[in-house]
Write a structure and sequence with these properties.
The complex is a heterodimer of chains A (331) and B (240). In chain A, 76% of the residues lie in helices and 1% in strands. With 331 residues, chain A is mainly α. The chains are: A mainly alpha (331), B alpha/beta (240).
């Protein structure tokens, strides 16, 4: 399978996916696909700083900032959701800058831990700032269907909105990866001191990567709130749903690669939902046990993620040497 | 005006005087060798000049500008290039490794690719452009390290043991590279243990021992210097 045929296959898959609502009218199926698209977008946005080796477990912060901004503007100030989206990006960008500037010096696990604290702090603020956020009760998006209100009768519009969002984020991630910024991030992840000695301003590269990542996460969060009609601190700033999950998708799919988070989201979202429905009812938390086993097995036996298995297959069929894998996708 | 002046540079690590009041100058277009036994402070000196370490006292001056307040990134952009003794290739293809410093100066990918390929050809590395450095020999990885440093378009290039650990054939293959660097009009400061190799390329040699500069002269002068011989043989001599 060469690059062109892979590209063709990708386009065919995309077209087939876009046609799903034509054939499947089940609300459940559309909902599942929409959720997958949201997670593809969020996982890919999370993945941008990972090109530079910075793994955040606090992306719920940007997701939630975006969600809250759009919801508060719409519910409290009757601002159009479409303007709210722009405001959401702006607030998430500010959040990204505020978090990254002090934390950028921290390496590896220290950065990751600090990012968790940042998201948790925002969750606490959202609970306590009742006059603005309505506390733990949260804010409901009134059901007034219409394009201007970003609220729809059927599940179809959000299927396409989230699909478009996923495509846009993946394309941006791809552009960044193969730009000067992408190479600087990869160089910093390999050896930050050597990169600096070659004149690469690695701190600036990490900062810009985080701005892209947080801004996009804020946009996704804002759309998500209109998809589920509610914003509530424990949901939107949820550590498991929007900080850990995008990271797990990236790790299981293939960390620091373009397609890893996409594959991770496609595999893990239905699995997570399925486990929650069938195991979560037998014994609360049992779904997380199974989930944890999947994660441990992946990290132990296929550290390169699912994508490394696919690449191996493609290369074997081509009869190429193993070095190509490292060349193209190592991060 | 010298291209580089090192003035009364000192650096302590706890109780150890790693660099003790070192001063010297390097002129435009020179190839200067830096020798000394293990632990003499050669690499520490490179780290102080390139800004990875901050000196306790003293100053480094590049073409009349004090580098005191400049980060390693800024120093590299000002024309101070270096290689690392322990090679540090990035986890990407050889060509992409060389593209990284070029992209730090001009973000255009197509131009960076072309310029990187040119540098690879200069160092006869073009056939390894798409290879991953981990799969190459130490000799080739050392050459990539030089290619990457050259890609920063340095005025002064500091080479840290680019021949160490290589067999005689590899040395004879890599030695011309140092001359090629000079032929580009780049001033070179080179740390090397292999005296023959160093003598073959350098016009002037600095010798260090226990953090201090103990000799500065032509290769013949330095190798016949009493203090240098004693430093290498490990004798204590209060006169040195």
């Amino acid at each position: 399978m060469n690059a062109n045929r892979l590209k063709l296959l990708g386009i065919l898959l995309l077209v087939a996916t876009a046609l799903v609502p034509v054939f499947a009218h089940s609300r459940f199926i559309l909902h599942m696909f929409t959720l997958i698209f949201f997670y593809i977008a969020l996982s890919s946005a999370w993945n941008i700083p990972v090109f530079g080796g910075k793994m955040s477990l606090g992306h719920a912060a940007f997701f939630g900032l975006g969600g809250y901004t759009a919801a508060i503007l719409y519910v409290k100030y009757a601002v159009s959701p479409w303007i709210g989206l722009a405001a959401a990006v702006l607030v998430a960008l500010i959040g990204g800058a505020v978090m990254t500037l002090p934390l950028i010096r921290l390496r590896g696990p220290f950065f990751t831990l600090a990012s968790i604290a940042f998201a948790e702090a925002l969750r606490m603020i959202a609970i306590d700032w009742r006059s603005m956020t309505n506390g733990s009760v949260g804010l409901n998006i009134p059901f007034r269907p219409g394009f201007a209100q970003l609220t729809f009768q059927s599940g179809m519009p959000f299927f396409y909105i989230s699909l478009l969002l996923a495509v846009v984020v993946v394309v941006i991630a791809h552009k960044i990866r193969y730009s000067a910024l992408g190479y600087h991030l990869q160089a910093s992840a390999s050896n930050d001191e050597a990169a600096q000695a070659l004149g690469v301003n690695t701190k600036k590269a990490h900062f810009i990567a985080f701005l892209w990542s947080s801004g996009l996460s804020g946009l996704i969060g804002a759309f998500y709130v209109f998809f589920i009609y509610v914003v509530e601190p424990n949901l939107i700033f949820s550590l498991t749903l929007f900080s850990l999950q995008p990271a797990l998708n990236g790790i299981i799919g293939g960390i620091g690669t373009i397609w890893g988070p996409v594959i991770g989201a496609i595999v893990m979202t239905p699995l997570g939902e399925y486990l929650r429905f069938y195991l979560g009812t037998i014994q609360q938390g049992l779904n997380y046990v199974v989930y944890g086993v999947v994660l441990i097995v992946t990290v132990n036996f296929i550290p390169g993620g699912i994508i490394s298995l696919i690449k191996l297959k493609v290369l074997k069929s081509k009869g190429a040497s193993g070095s190509v894998i490292k060349t193209k996708e190592a991060a | 005006m010298p291209i580089l002046s090192v003035r009364n540079l000192s650096k302590r690590f706890g109780g150890l005087k790693a660099i003790n009041d070192v001063s010297f100058e390097i002129l435009h277009g020179e190839i200067v060798g830096l020798i000394g036994p293990n632990g003499a402070g050669k690499t520490t000196l490179f780290n102080l000049i390139s800004g990875i370490l901050t000196p306790d006292s003293g100053d480094v001056i590049l073409e009349g500008t004090s580098l005191k307040s400049f980060s390693p990134v800024k120093r590299s952009l000002m024309g101070l290039g270096r290689t690392f003794q322990i090679v540090r290739p990035f986890s990407m293809s050889v060509l992409e490794n060389v593209m990284v410093p070029i992209l730090a100066r001009d973000p255009n990918i197509a131009r960076a690719r072309a310029a990187a390929f040119e540098i690879l050809s200069l160092l006869r590395l073009e056939q390894y452009a798409d290879a991953h450095p981990d799969n190459l020999t130490l000799a080739l990885r050392k050459r990539i390290e030089v290619a990457r440093a050259l890609a920063t378009r340095p005025k002064l290039l500091m080479l840290d043991e680019v021949l160490a650990g290589l067999n005689p054939t590899e040395i004879s293959e890599n030695l011309p590279i140092i001359r090629q660097v000079r032929d580009q009009g780049i001033t070179v400061l080179i740390i090397e243990h292999l005296m023959d190799a160093l003598m073959a390329v350098s016009e002037r040699v600095l010798a260090m021992d226990q953090g201090a500069l103990i000799a500065n002269g032509t290769p013949a002068e330095v190798t016949s210097n009493e203090c240098v011989i004693k430093a290498y043989l490990g004798e204590e001599d209060p006169a040195c």
